[in-house]
Amino acid sequence: MTLWTTGTATGIGSLPGNDPVEASRFVLGELPVPHLPELPARGWHADIAGRGAAMLADLHVDLQPTGWRIVPRSSRDGRRCRDLLARDIDALEQAGLSSPPAVLKLQATGLWTLCSLLELHRGNKILSDHSAVHDLADSLAGGIALHVAEVQRRFPDAVIAVQFHEPSLPAVLNGWIPTASGFGTFRSPTPVVARERLRTVLAAAENTVIHCCAGDPPLELMSEAGAISIDASLPVDTDVLGEVLERGTGLLLGVVPTSGPIPSVGDIVKQVYRLKDRSGLTQVTLTPACGLAGSSDAQARLGRCVEAAKALEEDG
Fold it and tell me: What is the distance between the alpha carbons of residues 231 and 287, in angstroms, rounded to a whole number?
């Protein structure tokens, strides 16, 4: 089944507010491909690191003054992260009882971004320890598999896709993540290790997407997933993009900024056609450029994605 086709739109994940039922009703009612809402306004336990920690299997976390840290046993903070995730799933199930979605997108913090956010028990970033990265990949893969199974149980007829947030992926690969002192940076993983660890996590789900909202995203590595998600306004190697799309990789294209003026449908269509001329894309799903947690007009921005997707479909 081809999920990411022209005429389709979805959100990146995060939305404003703190009411999961209201957010779930919105995405199920407005988006061709609804997603499990993420509501980071609820605090540390629901932000990108906290939500990522909630996905881990057989690893425990605790919130320290310097951020999230791996700890030997269960903590109140870790349980809070998992509780918020469980509430979100419950809210989505409740909102979808009358009209279950045919396709549903889940989101998770990507492995390499999570490695740059979480600390080891002794205090350094997981990124500093290759063995710890291996363990985190196994834990995240196990947790994602359990998460997908739980959501599939609630929505047995839906096709489930999992999008991995990897905003820090270029910085990790280029050795730009700073150490705690700020005077150095963590060594980048080798290309082989970066790919192998990524494959471990991607194998946990059948339909996967890697989202990177940074400029010059590593498209070749991201194409290990079934689809890639990028910001259309940022630099991208269109030759590499054309190559990965030619191999059948799906494309989710961020065409509406998270703040500032909302582009017209006509401007979005022109932007897509310009990229089509440079890369040869044939199918594209439209999204906002990134998450909309900080947007006061998130509904209008997602609505514009839907309108532009319909216009592209009508154009053929």
Answer: 9
Give SS3 for 205. coil
Measuring CA to CA, which residue among 209, 223, 289 is closest to residue 253? 289
Alpha carbons within 13 angstroms on the beta-carbon side of residue 169 total 28
pLDDT in tens, 179-206: 987 889 999 999 999 999 999 999 999 9
Sheet holding 285-288, edge to edge: 103-109, 159-165, 207-212, 227-231, 250-256, 285-288
Report d(CA 5, CA 9) in Å as an integer.
Answer: 9
**DSSP calls for 49-97:** HHHHHHT-SS-EEEEETTEEEEESS--HHHHHHHHHHHHHHHHHHHHTS
CA distance 11 to 298: 10
pLDDT tens column, 64-95? 998 999 999 999 999 999 999 999 999 999 99
Q: How far is the C-alpha of 142 from the C-alpha of 132, rounded, in Å?
A: 15
Give me the count of residues in the chain: 316
Residue 133, token pair as written in the block: 């990265």
Backbone angles phi, psi at 185, to 5 degrees: -135, 160
Cα–Cα distance for residue pair 197/127, rounded to 1 Å: 12
Please give the Cα distance from 243 to 27 (Å, whole number): 32
For residue 131, give both structure tokens.
Answer: 């063995």
* The model's pTM: 0.96
Three-state DSSP state, 147: helix
- Paired with 9 in beta bridges are 286
Q: How far apart are CA 19 and CA 42, in angstroms?
A: 9
Calpha distance 204→262 (Å, rounded): 36
Catalogue the long-range contacts made by 29-32 (C-beta closer than 8 Å, 24 or more residues apart).
30/299, 30/302, 30/303, 30/306, 31/302, 31/306, 32/7, 32/8, 32/306, 32/309
